[in-house]
Each structure stands twice: as structure tokens, then as C-alpha cells.
Amino acid sequence: MKRHSHIISVGLMILACLIAAREYYIGYQLQNSLEREVENMSMAENDQSAGINKTSAFAITPSSSSITTANSLFANAQLSAEKQQMLQVGKGDTISSLLANVGISAKEIEYATKALHKTYDVRDLKIGQSILIKYHHNEERNSSSLLELEFKPSLEYQIILNKGENGGFKVIKHTAHLKKVIRKIEGSIKSSFYNALLKQKVPPKIVHEAIKALSYTMNFQHDIKRGDPYELVYEEHHDHEGDVVKTGNLEYIAILAHGRPHKLYRFSPHNSHAGYYTPKGESVVRALLHTPLDPKKMHITSKFGKRKHPILGFTRAHKGVDFGAPRGTVVMAAGSGVVEKAGYNGDFGKYIKIRHTGGYETEYAHLSKISPGIKAGAPVAQGQVIGHVGDTGLARGCHLHYGVLLNKVHINPLTIKQMPTVQLTGKDLEKFHKLKREVDSQLVGLKLNKQFAKSEPVRQTLIG
Ligand SMILES: [Zn+2]
Question: Please, which residues have CB within 8 angstroms of residue 207's CB and are 6 or more apart in sequence?
Fold first, then answer.
């Protein structure tokens, strides 16, 4: 019995020794590998030292904090501290430059940006963006190792980059749970379309989109009368508390102007930008804008045709339209093309003529200023600012004289019929009709929609 227990106790002693040895071995290994890691880092860090010294050159928000947590697990813990910093992207900063400033090694920066790039294009980084980083800093070796990086590139999502257990980085994209809400607005015009929409708390972005989409095919001064009904549908994105986080797109706009229906749907054709289309799938974009001025800033003071000249007193043909507008109102190129003339032109004062495709030319007169770069031969884009309203030349009051020529003959700018630039076909047209049905199903109950249902069989004429 005694011998037995002796054997057992010897056995236990051996076992205890074995366990102790194993623990020592594991501890030794851990410490060893950690030291190796620190060594590697500091080696990489040495060629980065120039970058580290520049740390003070970038902005850290006043709220930046530095949390130091004692790391009692390892022997050299007192040298290593976990820090966190809120960085702010300044002009010319990149994720790489910001991390280098904190002293992160070039190798880690490379791994981190590579991992990030899978979910976020680091070139999209915006000035002013805040980025929270957590890193290990080794005082003695003046080296840092990145642990975590997080930022919110938009209201909809957050990017979190984490160092995994194997030392590699992984990226998580947290998407905020935004609810898409469809808003339907209807009303009738009292003073102006613009004011009517703003009064109904339609976001300015949507109002501008609506005016821009309709500007190709209608003239807000000429075509709208008091009481004309309109309706529109747009998207809003709400957060979990029901607050509007983001305004989406204008999906649909319709207006019955002088009894003439204008109805447009937003659609993104394959391989092209989103735009507005008539129920037949014709793009609203025309070669020429209906008015080369902001429609809410101008009013027609003189139409095309025979008139008694306000200054000369005798009757002569008015070969354009006069848009009264405050001095300095910007004048846009009605269509893309090439400047034919730009400069002083007798009674026309400061004057610009642009040549477009399809035999069209447009002219702009009595300008107070011609924009820099607008000279003969210069290409212009549709909507580009080319000058400002004034009263140079033979003009009574500030106005823009706007003329349109087709094959060298003046035509009435307010009634020209232009072909749509794009007519959807094939798969795009199919998809468009499907979208149209979806939007239409949301219009049930709107008054104008009922009126449209009645006026629909009448051929839709879009002037312009
Ligand atoms: Zn005129």
C-alpha cells in the first residue's frame, strides 16, 4: 500500500514538472514571438521615421483622446500602449498619409489599404472626413501598429477595418437601416411652380430637378397659367427614428400646363445616366434648352414677330424673344456647340452666337458681361454659363434678347419643335414600361392623374 502511494506521488511530481515546463515553454514562445514582431515592426518603422516626425503637421480634432491601457499579459507591456485618435482628412491627405503620420509602418498601411479597397474606394476620401484609429504604440521603439480604423463615408454606412488574430486586416461595412419613403405631392400653381413646391416643403434639390426636367419641353413663363395642376413623386430616406436622412430622386413629375400634359418619369437606361422620359420613352433632353436663363428669374417682355420697336418707335420684325431679368442673371448656352461670335455687335451690344448641330444657331444679346473663355471657336456645353444679363447696345431695361436660327433663318424660340435626343428601344423600353406601371400604381388617388387619364388619348404634344 505504502509503495503504491509512493509511486503515485512520484508520478504526480513528474506530471507537475511536465506541466510547469510546458507552461514555461509556452510563455517563452509567446514572449519570443512578440519580441520578434516588435523587432520586425521597428525595422519597418526605421525607414518611416521621416514620416513620424511630421505627425504634428496634420489636424487632430480637439476631441481626440488617447487611451492607454496597461497590458499586463506580456513582459514588455509597459512599453506598449493602446491609443486611439480621431483624425480629420485635410487637403491632400490620403488614408496612407494619415496612417504614416501616426507612425504605422508602410507594410501595414499597404495591407490595410488593400483590405479597405475591397469595400471602399480610398480615393473617394473627402476633406473633413473624420477617421477614428486605434493602434498600439511602442514608446521605446517609437513604432505603431494599427488595430482598428473606422469612419462613416456617408449617412448610410460605416466602414470598420479590424486587425484579425492572424495579423491580417478585415473590413466590415455596416449599413444603416434606412427606410425608403415615397412622398406624393399635388397642388396647383398660384404664383409660380417654384414657390408652390417650396411651400409644400419639397426639398430644393427635388424642385430644381423638376424644373430642370421640365425646362426642355416647356417654358415656365409662357406655358403656365394660374391654377394649373401638378403632381410629383419623390423618395426620401428615413432613419430608424423617422428623421429624413437623405433626399432621394424625383421619380415622377407631371403638370397640366394650359391644358397640355407634361408627364415625366425618371429612368436609367442600360449603360447610361438616369434621366427623365415621356410616357412614350422619349428622353426630355433636347438639343436646345427652352430658355437659356433660370426660368424662375425671368419673364418674357417681348415675343417673336412684328412689333413696334420700344426705342426706334417703328414696326419691324423682332427676330427673337426678350426675357426680362435682373442685371447679372446668368445666361446659359442653350445647347452644346461652338462659339461663332463673342463680342460687341452694334445694337445688340455684347453679343454671343453659338453654332449647334442640326443646322441650329442661337444668339444672346445685350449682355452686361461675356464669361471668360467664351470666344470664337471655343466649345461650350449645354447649360454652361456664357455671360450675364445686361442692357448693352440698343436696349431699354435689362433683358436678354435670345434668337434661334435654323439653317440661317430666324425661327420662334418658343415654338420650335425639336426631336428628342433619345428614344428608348428594346430591353430599355420594356424596363421603362415596367417602371412606369410601378410608378403609376402609386398615383392612384391623385387628382391630376384622373385628369390625365381623361386627356391621355389626346396626342401628347410637347412643345419645344
Ligand atoms: Zn429683342
Answer: 194, 197, 198
